[in-house]
Sequence to fold (87 residues):
Amino acid sequence: MFRIIVGCYEQLVIGYTVTSKKTNNELQMEPYFSDHSQTGCIKCLAAGSRYIASGSSDETICLYDMHLGEELGCLQVPSLLCSLGRM
Fold:
């Protein structure tokens, strides 16, 4: 079993649990969680062993706990800090 986390232009972060059937090695995907906290398209995701961070064009970063399958909160990031990474 493993999890796939995706972000999209429709402002969604979606998590899937992927399992393998032992009889024919076929993969099966089941929705694990979804969140629509951001108002801009999802531009990046960062994953750790337990937590996910998503960055959006609305200048927010949302944090998720993957063990609980829920959002922990969002941070408002000024555009100046976002542009510093492009230097």
